[in-house]
Structure formats: structure tokens, C-alpha cells
Amino acid sequence: MSILTFLRACRLAPHILILVKLIFTTAKKGTRLIMKYMNISLYLGILLLTISCAGQGMKPQVKSSRHPQVTEIQEREQPKLAPSGIERKDYIPGQILVKFKDGTDRQAIETIQRELHLQTIKTVSRPNLYLMKILDGSSVERVMECLQDFQEVAYSEPNYVVTVH
Amino acid sequence: MRKRAILILLASCFLTSPVLAFELDAGKKTQQPQGAAYVAGELLVKYKPSVDVTATEYYRTHWGISTLRTLRTIGVRHLKLPKGMTVKEALEIYKNDPDVEYAEPNYYRYATATPNDTEFDNLWGLHNTGQSVNGTSGTEDADLDAPEAWDITTGSSDVVIAVIDSGADYNHPDLSANIWINPGEVAGNGVDDDGNGYVDDIRGWDFVDEDNDPIDSNDHGSHVAGTIAAVGNNSTGVAGLCWAAKIMVLRFLNAFGEGDTANSIRAIEYANAKGAHVINNSWGGGGFSHALKDAIDASSAVVVCAAGNDGTDNDSTPDYPASYTSSNIIAVAATDQDDNLASFSNYGATSVDVAAPGTNIYSSKPSRQTVWSDNFDDNDISNWATGGDKNTWGTSDSLFFSGSYSLTDSPGGEYENDTDSWAQAPVVDLFGISDPKLEFELNGISESYYDFLYVEVSTDSLPWTNQDVLVGGVVFKSGISGSTLDNWLSATVDLKAYQGENTVHIRFRFKSDNIETYDGWYIDDVTVTAASSSYDGTEYQYLDGTSMAAPHVSGVAALIKAQRPSLTNTEIKAAIENSVDSKASLSGRVATGGRVNAHNSLVVPPAPSGLSASATSFTQIDLNWTDNSSNEYGFKIERKMGSGGTYSQIATVTANETSYSDTGLSGATTYYYRVRAYNSAGNSTYSGEANATTPAPPSGGGGGICFIATAAYRSRMAKEAVVLRNFRDNVLLQTSPRRSFVKFYYEIAPPLADYIGEHQILRTAMRFALTPVVYGVKYPKTSVLMLLFSVIAMTMTLRGRRSNRL
Lengths: 165, 806
What we know:
The complex is a heterodimer of chains A (about 160) and B (about 800).
Chain A: H1 2-29, H2 32-55, E1 91-100, H3 106-116, E2 118-125, E3 129-134, H4 140-147, E4 153-164
Antiparallel strand pairs in A: 1-3, 1-4, 2-3
Helix pairs in contact in A: 1-2
Chain B: E1 8-9, E2 38-47, H1 56-63, E3 66-71, E4 76-80, H2 87-95, E5 100-109, E6 132-133, E7 136-137, H3 146-150, E8 155-165, E9 204-206, H4 220-229, E10 244-251, E11 258-260, H5 261-273, E12 278-281, E13 283-284, H6 290-297, E14 302-306, E15 329-335, E16 354-357, E17 361-364, E18 368-374, E19 385-389, E20 394-396, E21 406-408, E22 420-424, E23 437-446, E24 452-459, E25 465-466, E26 469-471, E27 474-476, E28 482-483, E29 489-494, E30 504-511, E31 520-531, E32 540-543, H7 546-563, H8 569-578, E33 581-582, E34 594-595, E35 609-617, E36 620-626, E37 634-641, E38 648-654, E39 659-662, E40 670-679, E41 682-683, E42 690-693, H9 706-713, H10 719-730, H11 736-758, H12 760-778, H13 780-805
Parallel strand pairs in B: 8-10, 8-12, 9-10, 12-14, 14-15, 15-16
Antiparallel strand pairs in B: 1-5, 2-4, 2-5, 3-4, 6-7, 17-32, 18-31, 19-22, 20-21, 21-31, 22-30, 23-28, 23-29, 23-31, 24-25, 24-30, 26-27, 26-29, 33-34, 35-36, 36-39, 37-38, 37-40, 40-41, 40-42
């Protein structure tokens, strides 16, 4: 009995080491914790699963697998996990499509642009659908909200990204 | 399926075998668009060579059989039978004529001619015999019936299809002849000749690079264009739905297949302004765009949109532009080789309209050449340079995509912390090269978000610049981390910015932080490719997607436009949607519950002919016409008042009807009529026009007691109605008081008659009530005698009863 327990403990040792390392790492990385939360739960899940298998006498995968099932490829810019492994940007940041009501003159448009720090990238459709650049770093949502206050604006919307089907 | 395959009108080349078929059933018309086995009302007769040509005169005068045409080379007459004579009856007549060598029905023929394009057998979506395509076999007739459609039309170079996509390889031998050329633009003069805002836009526009060269640097658009209109029957490669058409190439998706709403709107407006008849949109994503929907709503084109490849329900999760409610959009799901919804295809019982083939679709791809490549199989990277902090770059045989070696940042196992090392490929010369790309295979793992693989490019004069890398369909803009989950993924870097440079340096760079290490990255088959202008017949590929389904529908729309140029976009949409092959697998998945069938959407019935109109009273005109069709669902009757009036549809009648009574008319008025046949594919052209003038109502305002009688007997020609009408004309209208009665009757009768006519029970009751009147009018003397007799009999009976009581 005691031998078996000892053997089990031996089998568990590497996992405990990894776990300790992980906790250490987590602590060390401090602020990264939240961003990595999902990953860590996955590590823990896999580890616990492996441990429970070991406990049942199955041969544990002690050797650190060359390809642990961690996550799919991710980008630093978009650290949120998504089912596809990456969260695509739905629209182009810093750009907004603005449609002015018929008869809106150039001056009125320029006034609005000055006020909200917008710059025309190109005329998308004549007479008055424009693609504009947001110069002050405001979010597209924020600018859309502000544009609603102007009578001259028919509507505004993000410049959505589309892809091949 | 051959059985359902249609079936072309017998042409002279089929006439060599004198097969008689006297035992066949009469040419009974069917409502199936596939048509009957032979043409009703027609016959092919071959006289013996010795027989005088005037022999046909007998049949014309005695039987009313006329000659449509004589097929002179083989001496066969193509005959038109008179109305009412069946093919079987006609065969009997000719069978007994010793001068006739043979007579036979004008059989529809199975389409036997398929185009001679060498890869046609791979195009299961056009013609599915159950053949194995790219290793998968399918189900016979799970296709668009393209060969059958091509017996009707193979397209027209007058039809313009805008392919709004990643561009197209307009030099491809299977595409070049069918590329639209802007008629309003003079090539290369630097002037916007047609004033559309785009200079020298001779074959469309590139909205990505803002130039006039919409060449495809993604493969997607070339594939789509080929499905719509790869040149057919040119002994080369594939055939499009349209053998001839004009593809307007509008590029707004970049080398990675990505674009934005703003440019999609510009592309659609370009197509609208230049008169495209069909717009293919094999792309989507993002949220609802008011502006994009406006641009589509403003289009007079048929706007075909791919439903999307997420395997989800567009009714609950819209995919734009397919999910816009615009009346001119056809949203397309994808089917596989067995007519099932493809596993990846989006669907939508209300928001997706039709399905079309979308798996294992073979079509054109741009020609590419290899500029430089290394597969590491010589286990030698001495021509590469490596360096940096803790550099361990080398080859490995533990993981490889091809051969037995690959390039890796850490051949010895896990990489080290705080690495920043690189492996630089030999210098690549991109001078005189167009559309260069770096392609490689990638497998591996690094710490997510912290340890990154980068691809960097420089020239002698430009610094190292990090490149966007497309891996497994996702664009990584600032390094790759995480895991490929033990899969090899294809990676692509667009080097267009470096084309024309003599010395282009490419390197893989790996940076790790100070915590956690993994196995690192494995790279194989590193290749720099570029566009090529030489073609060796291998420029084709298989692709899957609703992107591939949509162009099948665009092609069908273009065929319909070629066949019937006057149709509007919504009429073309209706012809496609009404003509689908219903499939249980698509029921509840797409609005029509079916897969598009090109042939069914083209089998417009022939127009009726011989329309005649005659006034039978001052309120009624009877129409008669000849039914020339074997596949109509019915006929639509249109009327206008006076030659300057406007036609409007007044009635439809069912298939095979050849007459109609137009009632409730005004007297002394000329009415014009025209009739057309219709079925799922749409309407036939109109019959000739016929007109009739109703007589003036009789003086005193009368016209017919027949309103109610006609309603009761359901025909003004019923003998009872005729009797009453004659009574009116000969008796009632002869004296003034009687005319007053008739006048009064006409004021109250028409609405009453209408009401009676609509109700079976009232008609029966009215017939019962009118019977003694009719008899009274028809046999006045007998009736009087009968009446007298009845009165006497009743009197006697009553008297008898009275005496009994006493």
C-alpha cells in the first residue's frame, strides 16, 4: 500500500512541479493574469485530467508534449479568446462611413468634421456618402454617437471588413 | 439524369433513322417543363423519291396539315397538324399512304452534345452523372442541367456580369475572350473618357490599389469568374455556365481575400453605372450597412450573394450582403455532389433563397511561377544566414511537410527564453516580376501572446519591415503565437510592395520572452511565387464554398438575360427561384426548398398564335387561340380598351385551354386582346393582337335576358340561354312596354347575375326556376295546353276533395 502511494506520488511529481512553475509564473507575470485566465484554466483542466488518469493507474503523459493543447494561434493585439482562436476585427478601426442628408452643403460637412476631428478619406458615393478618418483616436462607436446629434447626418456606420466566402 | 435531361427539338441530323412509332400515345401535353417525348401537333414525313412534291396538297386541303419547312437535304417535311389532330391520328393517316416512306413524331432529343472542354467531366455542378470528382463521387442529376440549358442558349456577349471580388486573371486562356471591355474608355490615354470618375478603366477597376489593373492576387475571383463564364467549347479546361458573356472585373478584396464596405459600395455603384446585368458577390461579413443596402437597392442588376460558410442560420445570424431584404438579391447556399446542403453552408428558411453546387468546384486559377524556393530536403541551409540572440536556427527531421527536413528555430527541442534570432533566405530578385508572394508551410507552437514568429522583409535600401501573414485563413499583423494544433497550415505573405526590387531579403525571426518555452516553429517549402503570363493547361483548381455556389446562379441569371434581354432583375430572380429542383434536404433550409436548375429556368413556353376575338353580344367577347406549347402552366389574358389603351391582365386560364369568354363588357366598344403562355421559367412572348367591337345595346336599353340565364347555365351558348335570348330579341323587344321591362331588367340583373354565377347552389336553383320559363318560351302552344291541363286536373282534384268532405 505504502509502495503504491509512493509510486503514485512519484508519478505526480512532474505535474506538481509544472503546477508550481505555473503558479510561480502566474504570480510573476502579475498583470498578465487576467489576459491569460482562459489559458490557465485550460492548463489546469488538462493537468487535473492527467492527474486523475494517473491516479487510476493509467500511464500519465509525463513528457511535456511537443504540442500541448493550449490554444490556437493568437495575436498580441487581440488577446481575447474566441471560438476560432482569434477575434477578428469586425471593422476597420479609425474609419467611419458618414451619409449626409440630401442638400447638405460642403460648409456644414466641414464644420462637423472640424468639430469631431474627422477627415475625408474618399467620397464613396455621390452626392454625400463619405469614408472618413477619425483623427483623434476616438472609437468608431463614440463618433457614431456624436454624429447622431447633427441634423445634417442621415446615418453613420463602421467601415466593416468583409472576406471571401 | 438522362431521362429528365432535355431533349432538344429534332434537328435534321437526327433524321437518318426511320424509326416509326405508331404505337405511341397521342401527344398528350404535360405540365412538366421537361416536356413531352415529342412535339405535339407536329410530324416529320418522308415521301418516296419518286413522289411529286404536290402530293402534300391533298393533306393540306383534306386534313388541314400544313408544311412548316422542308428539310431538303434529306427530303423530309416538317408538318404542322391542324388543331385537334393528335400525332397518333396523323401517323395513322400517313401510314396508309403508299407514297410515304416513313412518318414519325417530332421527337424531343436527349442532349447528347457536351462541350469539348477537356476538364468538363470535373464540372459535376453542371452535369452530374455520379462521376468521381476530386476523389468524391456523387448522385446522377444532382446538377444544374447545364447541357440541357445549353440547347436553349449558351449565353451572349451582350450580357455583362460584374464580378466584385479579388479581381480576375483576365489573361487566362479560358477567361480572356469573355472579359468585359469598357466601350466608353480609350485605353491608356490618361483621360477619364466616360466620365465615371475612373481613368483608363478599360476592364473594370482595382479599388484596392486604386488603379486600372484588377488582376487577381488571391485566386478567388478567377475561380468565380470561370464558373460564370469560362469560355465554353474551346477544347480548353473548363466551361462556364455562359460560354460567352462579358465579365466586368472589379477588385476590392486584397491578396488575403479581405476588403471593406466602402470599396464594396464603390464597386457596386461602378457596376450599376456601367450597366452590369448581373452582379456576383461571393463575399460577406460585418454588420448591417445602410449604405451598402442602398447601393444594392439602386441596382437594376440581379445581385447574387453567397450565404456564407459558417454552417449557421442566416435567419438568426444575418450574413451581409446576402441577408439584405433587397428585392433584387438572390442569396445562395451551397450543395454537395449528392444535392445535400454542404456541411459548411449557411442556410435560412426565409433569408436564403436557393442552393447551388458549392463543393469540389473546379475552375480557373491565375498562372503563377516560382521565383525561388527551398524545401530544405538537402538538409543544407548554408545559403541562408542565421543570427541574433541565442540563435539556434537550423534544420530538423523530426517534423516536415515534404521530404524529410524542415527549417526550425530550435532543432534541439524547446526554444530558449529571451531568444531574438533569425534565419534569412538568399536574396530574391523581384525585378520584372508582378504580384510576388512568399508562401510557406507552418507547424508549431510558442507561448501565446508572448513568444512570436515574425516574417520580415527588407531591401538594400529599405529597413526590415514586419509583414502581415495569412495563416489558415486568418491574417496575423504582428507576429504569430499559439499553436497550430499539430497541423501544417499554409501561410502567405504579400510581397507586392517589393515587386520591381532587385535585392529582396526575407527572414523568419523568432522572439521569446523570459518565461516559458515550447517546441517552437517548423517551416517548410518556402517559396516565392509571382504572376505568370504563360499557361500550360494546369491553371485550374478545386475550391469549396458558398462563394462557388453563387457564381453558378449568376451564370444562370446571365443565361436567362441572354435568352430574354427584356426581363427585369426581379423577373430573372423569379425565373430562377420558381424553377428550382425541390429537394427534401433543402426544405426549410432555403426559401425555395430547392437547388437551381438552369434548364428549367429557360424553358419558356412558345407563344400562342392565331388569337381571334369575336363579340357575341354587346357585353361579351369570345377569344380563341392556338396553343403551341407543351410545357405551359396556363395562359395569361390581357385586354385594353381602344387602340390607345393600356394592356392589363384580366384573367389566367389553365394549361391546354384555348378559349376564354370576356363578359361584362360595355356595348359599342372596341376591345384589344393578347394572350401569352406561362410556366416557372416565365412568360412566353405575346400572341398576335386581336380586337373585337361589341355591338351597340338595342334601343330601349335592352340586350339580353341572358345575364341571369348565362350565369345559371355558365355559358351564354347554353341552349337554354339561346332560347331566352331569342325570345328577348323576337318578342320582348317588339313593343314599348316590353322594352321598358327589359330596360328595368338590365338595371338590376348584372350584379345579381354575378352573384348567382359565383355560387353553385344558386346556379342550380336558378336553372330549376328557369326551366318552366324556357319551356314556356320554347314551346308556347304545348306549354299553354299543359298549363290548361294542369289547371283542369287541379280543379278536378280540389273538387273531388271537397265532395269527399261533404
